């Protein structure tokens, strides 16, 4: 009976995570569509660049080319996205009731918290593994639009290419949810993150082709879905493992989740910094009609070899990740037994007080 309840609870938790990530990716898809289509209709003209264009021209040209319609397009897009953001925040605030814990735990400092969570081996391996894989996909997402515009020459199609990535990610989340329940989460990590590698290689080696680019974009979206879903699906298993190993230390779930978000944002910042510095050193010209050959080479590295290397490093870390399906189910069984023992103890205590 306990094992049956445990399995049911796990399925419900994983299903809730899948629904949440589907809505999150869908929101990103809507934001990408709004921003891309509105701004794309009033895209600022590119700046002619060449050996005859000096630094003074580059400083003056942007001011000349940015016109009122372009500014208005960005203002309209930001206004629409802000409105959607406010509506979603109101739905969350009015529609979700917080369940407060009966047990009150003592507050913990930042350094105490990070020492506790990073001292738990499975959590450290999970965070480090997804730190590298997340950085790989963030490099790909952050530079793919520039890669399509300049290296592949699809300047007028990159909004649609980004839409294909996010649409395929939205559609692929239910598939990955089924896959992880059928074959296990570690298997889903390996298959999901490596499925994009052949396409990343082909988009760099195959001559510029719009159809191939759309195929690669669809494949990238499928892997992005796995990158969105699997970390949040595996994180509760790590928390359960911590509870089993530390039964006297309860109520610290928020620390695990908050530090995971911190490391995710850290990866985003590193990705942005690496991309910006790399393109700046290569001589990237903002809104240039063409870019130097060094920029094309840099973009190829940022969307293919660099993500592939980071994915390999992340998967090597995952080899030592100890929580498989058998251990996960065992942890849930032990937690249910602990919960039943606590209920029995509270019942006995109440009966004694009544007597």
UniProtKB/TrEMBL annotation:
Topological relation to the membrane, as annotated: Multi-pass membrane protein
Principal localisation: membrane
Entry keywords, A to Z: Cell membrane, Disulfide bond, Endoplasmic reticulum, Glycoprotein, Lipid transport, Membrane, Symport, Transmembrane, Transmembrane helix, Transport
Record-annotated membrane-spanning stretches: 73-96, 117-140, 160-180, 187-205, 211-233, 254-274, 301-323
UniProt catalytic activity: 1-hexadecanoyl-sn-glycero-3-phosphocholine(in) + Na(+)(in) = 1-hexadecanoyl-sn-glycero-3-phosphocholine(out) + Na(+)(out); 1-(9Z-octadecenoyl)-sn-glycero-3-phosphocholine(in) + Na(+)(in) = 1-(9Z-octadecenoyl)-sn-glycero-3-phosphocholine(out) + Na(+)(out); a 1-acyl-sn-glycero-3-phosphoethanolamine(in) + Na(+)(in) = a 1-acyl-sn-glycero-3-phosphoethanolamine(out) + Na(+)(out); a 1-acyl-sn-glycero-3-phosphocholine(in) + Na(+)(in) = a 1-acyl-sn-glycero-3-phosphocholine(out) + Na(+)(out)
Superkingdom, natural source: Eukaryota
GO cellular component term, pick one: plasma membrane
GO molecular function list: fatty acid transmembrane transporter activity; lysophospholipid:sodium symporter activity
BP-aspect Gene Ontology terms: carbohydrate transport; lipid transport across blood-brain barrier; lysophospholipid translocation
Localization: Cell membrane; Endoplasmic reticulum membrane
Annotated PANTHER family: MAJOR FACILITATOR SUPERFAMILY DOMAIN-CONTAINING PROTEIN, SODIUM-DEPENDENT LYSOPHOSPHATIDYLCHOLINE SYMPORTER 1
Family per similarity comment: Belongs to the major facilitator superfamily.
Protein name, as recorded: Sodium-dependent lysophosphatidylcholine symporter 1-B-like
Species of provenance: Sinocyclocheilus rhinocerous
Source species taxonomy: Eukaryota, Metazoa, Chordata, Craniata, Vertebrata
